[in-house]
Amino acid sequence: GRGLPARDAIPDMISVHPNPDLVLRKGLEDFARRGRKRVAVMMQEATPAILDGAEALIRQLGMETHPYWIHSVSAKVGFAARRVASLLMHSAERPDALLITDDILVEPATAGLQDAGVRVPGDLDVLAECNFPYPTPSHLPIRRLGFDVPALLDMCIDIIDTIRRGGAAPASTLVPVIFENDGKRSTGEPAPPTMTGNSRHTGKKGNAS
To answer: Left (φ > 0), alpha (ψ -120 to 50) or beta: where does 45 sit?
Structure first.
């Protein structure tokens, strides 16, 4: 099948969606707060512009990087993530932090670090994207940030109920990025969503059925 159309292809569609750019920013900001100095990034099928943007953001946050520390790897050839991760740590100059922005790359990338004999977090601080509460397998004790899938579904249901009652719903709701010990995992409550765009509603009033 051809799958679902892109969100922007249907102008009147109300959307609830994650923002992958926030994973990059929040992850790099976390490294800066923790005093990391040399940062590598692994993404899935990122464009050259996105890779350049990641490099610029790392430098803006006061950390070091190199173009050969910022990689785009296709999930279709996941074994490449294993080799790239291993190569990162076989250089004379090594990063002290690695951000993996797609959970599908976690297993092969951490296998590559294991191949290179890297101690995590002793030699390298690894932070990876996760669709909570279902982390992908990792060969090493990494940290995770990402999106709370049950909270996303709750947001969708709340918006549907609001519309059925005749209320206004935001055109676009961004699912917040959370860290492993944030949100539902620690407090029992999800982080609040970010709502953008104009409100939309059906114009009909009545109780949800």
So the answer is: left
Read off the pLDDT of residues 29-71 as tens digits, 9 standing for 90 and up. Answer: 999 999 999 999 999 989 999 999 999 999 999 999 999 999 9
Tens digits of per-residue pLDDT, 102-152? 999 999 999 999 999 999 999 999 999 999 999 999 999 999 999 999 998
Nearest one of 75, 109, 107, 79 to 95, comparing CA atoms: 109
Coil, strand or helix at 109:
helix
What pLDDT digit, counting tens, does each position of 146-195 carry? 999 999 899 999 999 999 999 988 888 888 999 998 754 432 333 444 43
CB atoms within 10 A of CB 133: 10
- Is the backbone peptide bond immediately before 192 cis, with ω within 30 degrees of 0? no
Cα–Cα distances (Å) from 39 to 19, 62, 78, 105, 129, in that order, read 21, 11, 21, 17, 16
Paired with 145 in beta bridges are 129, 179
